[in-house]
Every structure is written in structure tokens, then in C-alpha cells.
Amino acid sequence: MANVTLVSGFLLTGFSNVQKLQILYGVLFLLIYLAALMSNLLIITLTTLDIKLQTPMYFFLKNLSFLDVFLVSVPIPKFIVNNLTHNNSISILGCAFQLLLMTSFSAGEIFLLTAMSYDRYVAICCPLHYEVVMNTGVCVLMASVSWAIGGLFGTVYTAGTFSMPFCGSSVIPQFFCDVPSLLRISCSETLMVIYASIGVGACLSISCFICIVISYIYIFSTVLKIPTTKGQSKAFSTCLPHLIVFTVFIITAYFVYLKPPSNSPSVIDRLLSVIYTVMPPVSNPVIYSLRNDDMKRALIRLLQNTYGQEAYFI
Predict the structure, then answer these.
(1) 117 and which of 29, 124, 155, 212 could share a cystine (Cβ 3.0–4.6 Å)?
(2) In whole angstroms, what is the distance from residue 130 CA to residue 54 CA?
(3) How far is CA 309 from CA 43, 226, 251, 301, 312, in A?
């Protein structure tokens, strides 16, 4: 092999080299990050403290909010600091941890969304058996398996990626460490481990997608049999947002982790990366919970208990 210079760190290009624009992006993403953090922490607080929200659906929503908080907290704070300090460097260890955590939380979210689709299937198609099937033990088991498989996949994926040396350019044309960029600067001639990890990840994602599609085929066929339009509307309002969120998340994750390596990603690639990292943590609270009447009433009860009855009129 010819002499090569091994990479000891990476440079994240971000969105712009102009300092004024970097400050603008830093402030913008700081506001987005705070919005995502506060909305998800609010959901976690409500679903933990309010006794009327101690149901399987809100248990899974609380776990989803935890995953969203962790997922958005991995790349965005680093991106904010890089823009405000005009320093885009990241160490190999920092890049490895970023990849480990992002893949773990992303995989965990996919499995948790699959568990949520099963929860909706049992609630709508088998309502008389719902409390028996979706008991506390089953819910905890499903959530624990989602977290565990996500962590396992992230560990294997990251170990495969960083088991090979990097040489040549140290520039990663993204605002976080992504696998396609790391593969592009890899010195290794055999990438069997990482490609095997990608294959396993693709199979698991497709399996989850198939499970969700099958669940919703049964759900929609049951909903269409409901005699009242109001009942159909209520059922669709709880299921369609879940299907939309999962579809957007899985498509953007595919482009982030499975697209071929590129020396200069297009605007679309960077937009999809932003959607993948920022949109789920920001949109999930709005889609799932903050527009939900139960959540609104729980928020009012929390304000009343905290500030007194006058909080109702705020």
C-alpha cells in the first residue's frame, strides 16, 4: 500500500463558511433546539405526573419523547457551538460517540414507533382485550427491547465503521458525522463489517415498516366499519399522524445512512439531514400530544396544581 496520511480528526463543513451566516445558523438552531427540548420535556412531565395519562399510549409517547430529546441533543449542540465559535473540528473519539448515539437512538425510535403501531392495532381492532394484552409488563418489555436493540445496533454499526483507518481528506461535508462521508475517506479495501451492519439495519427497518403497514391495513379496515363519521375521524386522527411521522423518519434515515458516498452532498442531501435530526423531535410533540385534548387537560391540571385555580384563565 502506498504511503498515506492517517486522519487524526475531522472537520464538519456545516452550511456556510461566512461567519455572519454561521452566527445566524447557530442562533436559529439554538431556538429550534430549545423548542424541541421544552416541548418534549413538557410531555415527559405531564405523562409522568398526571394519573389520567398512565396508559400504554402515553407510556410509549413518553419513551418517544426521551428518544427525541437524546437524538436532537447529540448533533445540534455541537453544531451550535461550532457556528458560534467558528471552529468546525471534531475529534475521532467525538465523531465515534456522535455516530454511536445517533444510530442507537434512531434505531430505538424505529422500533418504538413499531411498538406504538401495535398498540394502536390492539386498541382499535381488539378493544375488549386491550387492557389484558397491553398490560404494564408487556409495555415495559416492548419499550426495553426497543432501547436495547437500538443500543446494540448502534454499537455494532459504530464498531464496524471505526474499526478501519481513515486517510486522505479529513473533511466531512455534513454538520454531523455520517457513515457515507466516513466510508469515503476510509483506507480499508474491505468494508464487509460495515456493509453487513448496513444490510442488517436495512432488513430490520424494512421488517418494522412491513409490521406497521400490516397493522394499519387491519386498523383502517376496522375503522371503515365504524358507523359514525365522528368515530372514524377520531380513529384516523390518532393513526394517520403516526404513519406520517414514521414514513418521513424512515425515508430521511435511509438517505442519511444508506446513500452512496459523495464528495459534495447536494442541497437536498443536507436538507434531508436537517429533517432527519430536527423534524422528529420538533414535530412529534405537536403531532402526537400537544394537540391532544387529554394532554391539554393534563396541562391545565398541572398549572392549577402549581399556580392555583387562576391558572385556568391564563
Answers:
(1) 212
(2) 14
(3) 22, 39, 46, 9, 6
Categorize the per-residue pLDDT at 187 as very low, low, confident or very high, splitting at 50, 70 and 90.
confident
In a domain, 79, yes or no: yes
Region for 239 from its dihedrals, namely left if φ exceeds 0, alpha if ψ lies in -120 to 50, beta otherwise: alpha
How far CA 58 is from CA of 43, 44, 139, 193, in Å, comes to: 9, 9, 11, 38
Q: Which domain holds residue 199?
A: 18-309
Q: What are phi and psi of 71, to 5 degrees?
A: -65, -45
C-alpha cell recorded at residue 42:
413538557
For residue 211, being part of any structural domain is answered with: yes
The tens digit of pLDDT for each residue in 83-120 reads 888 888 888 888 899 999 998 998 999 999 999 989 98
**Could you give the number of structural domains in the chain?**
1
| 213 domain residue, yes or no | yes
Angle formed at CA 281 by CA 55 and CA 82, multiple of 5 degrees: 150
Task: List, in order, residues 6 or more apart from 210 with CB less than 8 Å away.
Answer: none
Helices and strands, counts by H and E, the chain: 11, 3
Query: Hey, is 92 helix, strand or coil?
Result: helix
The grid coordinates listed for 304 are 392549577
Please report, for the domain that includes residue 53, its CATH number: 1.20.1070.10
The number of angstroms, rounded, from the C-alpha of 225 to the middle of its chain's C-alpha atoms is 33
Q: What is the DSSP string of 252-287?
A: HHHHHHHSPP-SS--HHHHHHHHHHHHHHHHHHIII
- Residues 8/95, Cβ–Cβ less than 8 Å: no
Residue 297's CB is within 10 A of a number of other CB atoms, namely 14
3-class DSSP state for residue 167? strand
The pTM score is: 0.87
